[in-house]
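Researcher: Quick test of sequence recovery. Tokens follow.
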């Protein structure tokens, strides 16, 4: 059941995309990480498809089933009070009806936003007309359920490096504008890109722009000045944490235990932190 409180969260999340400033959206992989992001002051949280896959021991790319995603979203939504957006990948369905039904289940679980992407497993992009049908289907769902959730339409032109620089840019702008015209609230163009590319994207796409934190260009102030409205952290946090976990496992295997035993995050402090 969709509550008035959930509708209010959707309105809050929608408004965040319309303000004349950028917000940073951390990507969680389970209820604990989402809880931490909220407790440390973030105003909304999103899931990471990669993070959820790693959490279950799989690589990224719809290797987990929809029921796994739904279960995790329920657990996260139950534990946090801020808006929750879900990385919906390709919608976990081949038809618009399947995508809508899956989105409906995630909304009933507490989501107030979705990423829907056009990247395919073979490294190409979904035909534009088919992607627009998915977006239009989600727009219909907004009306049917009377909740203004955020549709964050993602093009993987840069992420999958589908063409040369100029062609990629034009493809991203063309698709981004088509997504917006179909009803998307925000356009997501992930990938490692320089300042000039970001500037061209924000100038060319007539919608709020979401990019992903990357090592090429990541100055918060400059990104905001260029018009980026949403900065996703992507799989960066979960990869950092799991990298630390792999290092810890190697240390433990070799009998190197001092660093873990001397952690300042002691048992009592951990229990206190996670107590609401």
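Model:
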């Amino acid at each position: 059941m969709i509550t008035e409180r959930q509708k209010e969260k959707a309105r809050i999340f929608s408004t965040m995309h319309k303000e004349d400033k950028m917000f940073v959206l951390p990507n969680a992989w389970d209820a604990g990480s989402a809880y931490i992001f909220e407790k440390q002051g973030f105003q909304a949280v999103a899931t990471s498809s990669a993070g959820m896959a790693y959490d279950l021991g799989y690589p990224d790319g719809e290797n987990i089933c929809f029921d796994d995603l739904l279960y995790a979203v329920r657990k996260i939504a139950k534990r946090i009070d801020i808006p929750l957006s879900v990385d919906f990948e390709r919608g976990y369905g081949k038809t618009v009806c399947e995508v809508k039904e899956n989105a409906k289940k995630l909304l009933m679980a507490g989501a107030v936003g979705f990423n829907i992407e056009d990247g395919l497993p073979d490294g190409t992009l979904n035909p534009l007309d088919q992607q627009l049908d998915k977006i239009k289907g989600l727009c219909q769902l907004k009306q049917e359920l009377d909740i203004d959730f955020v549709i964050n339409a993602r093009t993987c032109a840069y992420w999958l490096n589908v063409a040369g620089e100029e062609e990629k840019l034009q493809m991203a702008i063309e698709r981004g504008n088509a997504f917006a015209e179909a009803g998307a609230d925000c356009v997501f163009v992930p990938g490692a890109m320089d300042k000039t590319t970001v500037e061209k994207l924000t100038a060319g796409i007539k919608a709020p722009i979401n990019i992903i934190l990357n090592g090429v260009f990541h100055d918060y102030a400059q990104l905001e000045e260029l018009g980026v409205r949403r900065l996703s952290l992507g799989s960066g946090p979960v990869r950092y944490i799991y990298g630390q976990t792999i290092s810890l496992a190697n240390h433990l295997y070799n009998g190197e235990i001092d660093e873990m035993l001397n952690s300042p995050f002691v048992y009592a402090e951990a229990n206190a932190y996670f107590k609401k």
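The CA atoms of residues 194 and 217 lie 5 Å apart.
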